[in-house]
Amino acid sequence: MFLTKLAFKNLVRHRNRTLITALIIAFAIFFFILMDSLIGGMTEMSYENIIEYEASHLQVVSHEYREEEDELPLKNLLTVDEQLIGVVKRVAGYQASLAELNFQARLNDGINELPVIGKGVNPDKLLDVFELQDKFVEGSIFSSGEYKAVMGKRLADLLKLKQGDYITLLVKDKNETFNTIDVEISGLLHTGNPKVNSSIVYLPLNIAQQALNVDNQVSKLIVRLENKDLAEISGHLLAENLKTLDNNLEVILWGDLEAVSVAGAKQMGNQMILAIILLIAAIAIINTVILAALERMKEIGMMKAMGLQRKEIIYTFVLESTGIGMLGGLIGLLLGGIGVWIFSKYGIDWGAMIGMDMSAFGMPIIGKMYGVWNLGTFLLVFGFGVFVSLLSSILPAYWAASKDPVEAIYHQ
């Protein structure tokens, strides 16, 4: 008990050193919590933008189409009939479904030409499955059978197009014959997904099927559920049910999509950055604790001269360092909590601040980026700070406690 009291008295007696060391630990913990929150928020926003504007929760495709999906082929398509819709509607959490015909096209405004992804869709179903209703910055969605199209505002700006202008889509039909689709722009979108804004043109499904000569076939059936957490259970159930209908069909979960895999790979890279930050923080903490112990060499000599044993001196120093680690950890948690609250409530717009466009790094994010709460990180980094403080004090305390009292007292 005497040694414990001595350790805590030392914390107060050397308050300036205690506070400086604790602030260094606190800053390391604060910085890690903040970075973890922003990276977690960036990942969550990437997933949400892919689900809400591009892929939704489940997709039904043929096995052969899945293998060549990146090339947007017009073969191995599927026919969406009442029987298939009936099976899909029976999955847990079903909300809506959309038959989508994807194809390669070149967008021509009469002067310039750009490669784009064409999507033939039912307009009402499109708005049921994706959160696009409030994303129109000009005009509105088309009706089935109308020779009209909707595209992203960024794509329109590249070609200096606006609502009401006419465009031509140059396509190859199912038989590799060139064809054109002339449509009027009925609306322009601006979403949080840069791919939708800059490379996709939506047009009525029947117009696209006719131009591409694919009868009533589509590339995939997209299914929206009540929430993404139901995707795994509902997806596996749907896959089992589809086997009785057509053994050639398969179900793709949103988490298995290539775009999500890319975002997940970037998340792994971000975790490596966090690990490096944690390592640097550990080095800073170790360095600070060692310097603090060396500065107190004379004090250690006095303690030995007074009859304290080596293990008692080590115990006192380790306890004192652990106390500093806990103090720094608590300050770091407090500052980290304030930082995460600010970023989760108000967000940060890198584009407005320093002109950084996250989509340039392959992240499907536009506009403000928000932080997320991760209580596991709070506990982890606090425990890490205390553990590193404790561990880093043992060796210098042991080294100092092993010295001769006279030598320690006159240590320079």
Number of helices: 15
Query: Strand order within the widest sheet?
Result: 3-4-9-6-8-7
Query: Which spans of ≥5 residues are poorly predicted at pLDDT below 50?
Result: none
Secondary-structure content class: alpha+beta
Rg result? 31 Å
Give the % helix.
Answer: 55-70%
Number of strands: 12
**Order of helical and strand elements:** HHEHEHEEHEEHEEHEHEEHEHHHHHH
Cα distance, first to last residue? 31 Å
The average pLDDT score comes to: 83
Domain tally: 2
**What is the molecular shape?**
elongated
**Biggest sheet overview:** 6 strands, mixed, barrel
What fraction strand?
A: 15-25%
Protein name: FtsX-like permease family protein
GO cellular component, one term: plasma membrane protein complex
GO biological process, one term: lipoprotein localization to outer membrane
Membrane topology: Multi-pass membrane protein
